[in-house]
Amino acid sequence: MILFRRFRRGEVIFGLALLGVLVICFVCWPALSSVNPYQSQVSNRLKPPSFIHPFGTDDFGRDVLVRVMYAGRLSLALGFMVAAFACLAGTALGLVAGFLRRLDGPISRLLDALMAFPDILLAIALLAAFGPNLVNAVIALGLVYMPRIARVVRAATLVQRELPFVEAALSMGASTGRILWVHILPNLLAPLFVQGTFVLAYAMLTEAALSFLGAGVPPELPTLGNMIAAGQPYFGRAEWMMIFPGLAIALTVLALQTLGDGLRDALDPLMARGR
Amino acid sequence: MRSTRSWPAGDEMTAAAIMEAGARRVELNRSETAAAPVLSVSNLSVAFETERGRVAAVRDVSFNLYAGRTLALVGESGSGKSVTSLSIMRLLGSAGVIAAGSITLATPTGPQDLLRLREREMRGIRGRSISMIFQEPMTSLNPVLTVGHQIAEPLRSHLRLSRRQARKAAMALLDRVGIPGSARRVDSYAHEFSGGMRQRVMIAIALACRPLVMIADEPTTALDVTVQAQILELIRELQRETGMAVLFVTHNVGVVAAIADRTAVMYAGELMEVATTAQILSSPAHPYTRTLLASLPPDIDSPFDRERQRLVPISGQPVDLAALPPGCSFSPRCPWSLRACDASLIPLAQVVPGRAARCVRIGDLR
Amino acid sequence: MTLLSVRGLSKEFVSRRGFLRHSDRHLALKDVSFDLAPGEILGLVGESGSGKTTLGRCVQRLIEPSAGDVVFDGTSLRALPSKALRVLRRRIAFVFQDPYASLNPRLTVGRIVAEPIEIHSLAASRAARRSRIKALLAEVGLPEDAAHRYPHQFSGGQRQRISIARALACDPDLIIADEPVSALDVSIQAQILNLLADLRARRGVTMLFISHDLEVVRYLCDRVAVLYRGRLVEIGATEEVIRRPQHEYTRSLIAAVPRRRIEHLPLRSPPAGLEEGE
Q1: pTM of the full structure
Q2: More confident: B47 or B364
Q3: pLDDT tens digit sequence for C48-101
Q4: In the predicted model, is pLDDT for residue B166 greater than 90?
Q5: First and final CA of chain B: distance in angstroms?
Q6: How confident is the model at residue C17 (pLDDT cuts 50, 70, 90)?
Q7: Which of B158, B174, B208 is the last residue of a domain?
Q8: Phi, psi at residue A41, to the nearest 5°?
Q9: Residue B111 lies in a domain
Q10: Which of A121-130, B18-27, C125-134: highest mean pLDDT?
């Protein structure tokens, strides 16, 4: 797919490249580094960035660089799981709502209701209700972003449903399931993927916000959000505790958004005419 | 024949009238015909920039339009007939490039080469000296403006009529094109009309300033056949009244028979044969014309034996304009093609005075 | 012995206008009845608004009729539960008008043609399916390697052949062709019409041929039914209906078809010599 000429846009290449660098860092660094991100070394507290500790050390004397990498890995993984969950649930609901007219009404109203809540509030409410652990965080955030995916899928399904080749499949005796799987779903994958990258970005941001507020994953695990939270009291003295995790989030979200924008424009048939 | 009131609904022409109109013989007053052409297209070539390079859509096309006469431009998809008509109006858009040629319009103030005019001057020509009607009246008419407004538009901008004068003229035009209740209908919107009525509105707009030339690009293709007959009759009448020249672009040979004095057959962007309609239908010279006519279902009045008779399709596929053969473009599909046909380009040559064809085998195929 | 029997078929379309206003009712079909014998080609002729497209869809219950019934080979379609209906659709195939949109652009031609076989599990093995696809493509005049290519690589006429191959995949008893040649170039129409005529001769498949073009219907169909505003106004042997139309509408329809024979041309062309040769 990447080989298609129209995907060779600046945004796609940049987003993909930056994302690639970040992912490699987040995945490989923890595996290759011998530095322990959890062990505190009180003598080393709050040291500014230096050769040994490029990102400085935090209030427990732990190397910020390594912690950022571990946290990035966790945040990215979390974001990925949320996006996957939202895509699966959202696609299922969107397909049903788009294809089965009778269920469209209730499902759309449900989605509207979910979307009416601000992301973070809804996530906090769900976590408060079910208990703040990793799995619940994924489910909560997934539910928050699922409506966005469902709407896109529903809209695309409504369009696809009217196409003559779908009617042709019906006339051959194809079951609803077959039509959805063979004829409609493949044409949805492109916009779904684009929305998925956006959801990934939003999920990471929201998770960071949740962790910052202390309402996210358990505090023992380093996430970019709670690293920033931990650095807050030291703002005047050790800014590097907040800057570097913040930068990590910003760069990741930038990469994802750019990639998503580029993909969306590349797939837009109107813009494709400029090939 | 008994007169009927119920079919086709909405319009006044009865079945009897349709048949009568088709059989009516009209002799043109010879003193009314002008010998000099109203519009002269010479060596027109149009190309498009595509991903596969520059594609020639129209190649060295020349023809004349005369007052009170209709020329049909017949061809299938890819023949270049629509591009030709759009080029005359200079409505090609940014993708098309007029590579060569001249289009001379005989205006009251002297001949004008339309291709050399500036866009501002061309705007003064469109809708006034040359008008065009299209295939899909629904998309050619503005859905948010009344039809009266749209008919009045050329009157106000070209002839500088006042709003009241233009409105009166619009009502008169609606009457003339056969839309009943013009006083009411002048304030109706496009969607309130049926397909045939909308096409009549389009004709009214085209006719508003009494143009010298009317170009009709497949105006009846999207219409029912009963409505088509009425629209063709309307165009014929209006031509008799106003003496305008008509260029009728179509792929339908039956329509050509009903409306055209002369016919030009196009294939792959070139003129393949030009002759009077009667000659084209009774004794086609060019292999493409002959095979095209042979592939049509038999005329509805002809006897037909399903067991014996069979359509003879043209073999092969429509031409790919981006990959034209070196010689005659029809040669790959021609049942009579020789090696000489593929060697080099074939010129359009006169067969008899008033008749031309682009084929080297005309002589031996008769 | 009739293969298809349409009895008193009516269809009313209801569209809701606004929240409180009454709905718009449009009667697309009014009490249409006719029979189709095995092996015959029946033409359904009508202009826009005649209901011919709706009728074609109702025969396969792609659209639910408001009243009346369709009886196919003794089985009433009306009472059929959806699963049995799907199975029955193996025996009634559709060819649609638009060669560009009726084929899924993401599937290869092979998969498109094989879809009916897959749906009804008619092939014993992959090899059997492959050879069936090959045979079908050959039957409609397409090259063997077409199976690996995509629809957009073919012309309109060729795509219509693919549609026909797909329709034949399950050896249907009845083919409903909804304006199959209307979107094609004139010179290609003849190829497809001949193909359909050959298919009837070779396979004995019954056909319901829906069209607005009376000349095409006359060439291909044994009998013709004329629809006007949802009603069946005339039905009979093609040549009979054309030569001796009984109904006013049929007469006006025939009269409106443009003639191509010289005797019927309005004599308007001035003698040659008045215009220079081009």
Answers
A1: 0.82
A2: B47
A3: 889 999 999 999 999 999 999 999 998 999 888 989 999 999 999 999 999 888
A4: yes
A5: 43
A6: low
A7: B208
A8: -140, 90
A9: no
A10: C125-134
Q: Is A16 domain-assigned?
A: no
ipTM associated with this complex: 0.84
Q: How far apart are CA B203 and CA B219, in angstroms?
A: 10
| C-alpha dihedral, C215 to C220 to C221 to C227, nearest 10° | -40
- Residue B1: pLDDT band (50, 70, 90) is very low
CA distances A100 to A86, A112, C20, C23, C54, Å, are: 21, 18, 25, 22, 22
Judge whether B62 and B43 are in contact, CB under 8 Å: yes
Q: What is the pLDDT of residue C262?
A: 67
Residues 37-66 of B with CB under 8 A from C: 62-64, 66
Q: Are C273 and C261 in contact (CB under 8 A)?
A: no
Distance between CA atoms of residues B130 and C213, nearest Å: 33
Q: Does B348 contact chain C (CB < 8 Å)?
A: yes
Q: What is the pLDDT of residues B193-220, one digit of tens each?
A: 988 999 999 999 999 999 999 999 999 9
In a domain, residue B100? The reply is no
Q: List, in sequence order, the alpha helices (H) in A33-118.
A: 64-99, 101-116
**Residues recorded for chain A:** 275
How many separate domains does chain A show? 1
Q: Which of B150, B178, B208 is the last residue of a domain?
A: B208
pLDDT of residue A7: 67
Residue B22: pLDDT band (50, 70, 90) is: very low
* Full domain range(s) for residue B178: 138-208
What integer is the mean pLDDT of C231-253? 94
Give C41's strand partners.
C207
- Decide if C158 and B224 are in contact by the 8 Å CB cutoff: no
CB within 8 Å: B225 and C47: yes
Residue A9 in domain = no
In this complex, the residue of C98, C106, C107 whose CB is nearest that of residue A164 is: C98
pLDDT above 70 for C209: yes
Q: How far is CA C219 from CA B223, C38, C171, C205, C244, in A?
A: 22, 19, 24, 17, 17
Which pLDDT does position A238 carry in this prediction? Answer: 85
**For residue A6, how many other CB atoms are within 10 A of its CB?**
14
Q: Is residue B246 assigned to a domain?
A: no
Domain annotation covers residue A88:
yes
pLDDT at B171: 94
Residue C275 is predicted with a pLDDT of 41
Q: For residue A171, what are the domain limits?
A: 64-269
Q: Which domains does chain C have, with CATH numbers?
A: 4-91+172-257 (3.40.50.300), 103-171 (no CATH)
Task: Say yes or no: B356 contacts chain C, CB-CB below 8 A.
Answer: yes
Closest CA to C187 of C220, C230, C211, C157: C157
Is the pLDDT confidence value at B304 over 90? no
The residue of chain A with its CA nearest to that of C86 is A173
Contact assessment for residue A149 and residue A85, using Cβ atoms and an 8 Å cutoff: no
A245: domain CATH number is 1.10.3720.10
pLDDT beyond 70 at A158 = yes
- Flag whether B201 is in a domain: yes
> How many structural domains does chain B have?
2
pLDDT at B23 over 80: no
Q: Does residue A274 fall inside a structural domain?
A: no
Using a CB-CB cut-off of 8 Å, the residues of chain C touching A170 are 62
| Interchain contact B297–C (C-beta under 8 A) | yes
B221–chain C Cβ distance below 8 A for any pair: no
Strands in C174-178's sheet, in edge-to-edge order, are C92-95, C174-178, C206-211, C41-45, C223-228, C231-237
Q: Is A170 on the interface with C (CB under 8 A)?
A: yes
CB of C190 closer than 8 Å to CB of C160: no
Would you say B201 and B151 are in contact if contact means Cβ atoms under 8 Å apart? yes
Residue C222 DSSP class:
S
